[in-house]
Amino acid sequence: MEPVLKLRNLKVIFPTSYGLIRAVEGVDLDIHEQECVALVGESGCGKSVTSQSIMRLIDSPPALTRVDTLEFCGEDIQDYTPKQMQEIRGRDMSMIFQDAMTSLNPVMTVGRQIDEMYIRHQGVSKQEARELTVQALGLIGLPEPRTRANSFPHQLSGGMRQRVLLAMAFACHPKLLIADEPTTALDVTIQAQVLSLLRNMQTGCGTALLLVTHDLSVVASMADTVYVMYSGKIVEKAPVKDLFESPQHPYTVGLMAAVPRLTDTRKEFYQIPGTVPHPANKPSGCYFHPRCEYATEQCAKEMPPLRSSGTNREVRCFHPL
User: Fold this and answer.
1) Crossing angle, helix 158-169 and helix 126-139, to 10 degrees?
2) How many CB atoms within 10 Å of residue 253?
3) Which of 38, 109, 167, 184 pairs as cysteine with 223 (C-beta 3.0–4.6 A)?
C-alpha cells in the first residue's frame, strides 16, 4: 500500500555565525493510512525541524533544505508553490504546534479562528461555519461550546486551548496530522485526556498521525511504529512493541533506562553520560560514540549505516544490542 507520506533523504542546514547548523541529516520516513508514527528523541535532535519541513514551513533560504522525495498521497509536493501548499495545509494535512498559547491568534476569538478553516477550505458561509465550529468544539469535549467560541485564547485554560487546536486540526478531516509535542506544559491528568481525545479523533477520522515527542510513556500508549532520532539522524526504527521489548541501539536503551519506575531499587535516577553534541560541532564517526559505553575505534571513525535488523526494524549501530 502506498504510504500517505513518503520522505527520503531530508537534509536541513542553517548557516549561522557559529558555522553550519546541520539540524537534519538524511532522514527517511514512511507513514501509512491510519498509522501513528512516533518520532522520539532529546530536545534539539531535529524532531520539530523534520515535522515543519514536511509541512514546507521552513523558508529556504535562509535555511538550506534538500530532499530526494517528499510525496503526500502519491503526489510529489516538494516543488509545490506557496499557493498550492496553502490549499493542502489545513485541508489535507494539519499540524498541532507545541505551545497552544502562541499557536492561537491572541486578538481573535477561538471560534472565529476555527470558522476560517471551514470558510477557506469548504467554502461555507459565516453562519454555516459557526455552526460547524460549535459542533467541533462540542465533539472535543469543550463545555458550553457556543459560549466558548466567543472566548479569546487567554480566557481559556491550557487544556482548553489544546482542545481548540485539536478541533482546528481535525476540522477538515485531514489525511495526515502532525502533532509536535501536543501535551507540552499540561499536567498529567489533562495530558491523558488530550492524548485519549487525539487517539479517538485519529481513529474516527481515519487520519495518519506523526507524533513528535520525547515522552516514552506517550509513545507506548499511542504509537504503532517508532523512529528514534539523535543529533539529526534516525538511529533506530521499530514497531512499538518490539522497541520496548528489545531496544537495539545504545541510545534507545539509555532513554528507556532514564524513565523512573516504581519497581526501581537503585534509588537514583539513571542518565546518559555526557551531553548532546552542538549541531555546529558534531563528533566524527557515530555521533553517539562519546556517550556510548560500547563504542570502539571504528565507531569514532565511521558513521554506521542504517541497516535492517529484523522485520520492519532498522538500527544505525556497528554493535547493536
Assistant:
1) 120
2) 18
3) 38
